[in-house]
Amino acid sequence: MKSKVSKAIYPTVNSDLPQTYIQGSKTKSLYSVSHMLSHLAEPEDFDKDDRCWMYPSRIAKEHQAEFAMFVDELMEESQGKRKEPHLSAYRHHLEQLLLNLTQALFQNKWLLVSQDEAAFRGDQQYIAAGWQYRTMKAALKYLEADGLIYLRIGKMFTDQPLRTRVFPTPALSPYLYQFLFGAEQVFEGPYVVVNNPSEMWLQINGAAELMEEAELAKINNFLKDHDWGAKAPVRLIYNTDPFHGGRLYTPYQNLPSRKIDIRKHTLIDGEPLCEVDFSANQLRLQLAVLHGEDAGNGPYEDIAMISGIFDREKIKAFIVRAIGSNSRHKAAGSCRKIGISVTEFNTLEAATLALYPMLKLFIGWTHQGQNLEGQILKKVMLKGVDDGVVCLPVHDAIAVQQKHELWAVKAMTTAWTEAVGCNVKPRLKVDRAT
């Protein structure tokens, strides 16, 4: 950073200082998370899972003074000769970029920002937020010129354009760490999103969507007064329409958890959390819904014993692709890309069908399974609202404060059993930070 910003002193978190512990778990968690983030490499940039979208955001009240001071110094460097109302507009765009970059840093993902003037006139998200093409471009130009962001220009493709991607450089990241638990998305609907509605869906005028919008509004109206990492609304997103697969989505579930488990080191309302996870859920759901069959206590372990392949992640990856793909050929191709050989694929298929001959592979059942998962987790979250328990969806799991672990196990078991409509019970496991 140039001039004053490089000399500014901002609140930092140091595990060796006594004041680190004065604020309790939240400050210790911030140090732990920021320390782990600093050791992560720049995110990959291959597909949509490596990127996150820009949303209207704000800074939590307890961080407003520090954030305003930070933006003041950046404005002093970059505002030039702007006068009102252009000066306030520029500051607003700069703030929005910084808050979204903070969440992108937290998720270790590239932030998608449109640099196409037409998108600012046609993208409903940009229109609703009041973002302007020239002002956004000016703010990005300053951040890049000052070495504060990496910027990769978007490209035009026939099917779908790729937007410009940005990510904080090591010059900016340390200044954003203090806002990791303060940057949050604005809680505004719609909370049910149908990306590509089918003709059938359009013909019935979205009656179910309206019902689910009210349910998601109830959930978000409860959640917005609470606190957690990567705070943002929970949205129910359908790729095509509610006749196909839909999932609950919130940025919390994108926090890193594989190479470094940052996600479970975060907090809910300042207290340690745990994630209660449905075990082998797609396999269990299909067997229970279609055949009333129980998959047993450890289906992946049972498949390992028969196949002789003792790699749980590889077995899980095979099952997910075999159930989700609509052809054997596509499933095999997808498995090869992640290192499952043809021989292993054949062996795992034979072992799976030997154990579960009623299981339907290669029929694209994942859409139905995801829809069921979404409905089950939504029901748990609605009960959480009634019982005053914060629940965050994580694919086929729920994150809650550790003190609510038993509540989550009971609520998830009840919702799952009611959804499948038979006496089969799910199996759940509880994960905490290690």
Shape: globular
Estimated structural class: alpha+beta
Helix segment tally: 17
DSSP strand tally: 14
List the uncertain runs: 1-23
Percent strand = 5-15%
**Radius of gyration, Cα only, in angstroms?**
23 Å
Fraction of residues in helix? 40-55%
Distance between the termini: 36 Å
The total domain count is: 3
Mean pLDDT: 89
Main beta sheet: strand number and arrangement? 5 strands, antiparallel
Question: Can you describe this structure?
Answer:
This protein is of the alpha+beta class and 434 residues long. It folds into 3 domains: 3-185, no CATH class; 193-280 and 367-431, Alpha-Beta Plaits (2-Layer Sandwich), CATH 3.30.70; 296-355, no CATH class. 46% of the residues lie in helices and 13% in strands. The strands form 4 sheets. Strands 10, 11, 12, 13 and 14 form a 5-stranded antiparallel beta sheet that branches. A hairpin with a 7-residue loop joins β8 and β9 (246-249). α11 (281-291) crosses α16 (366-387), α13 runs antiparallel to α14 and α13 (312-324) packs across α15 (342-355). The model is unreliable at 1-23 (pLDDT under 50).
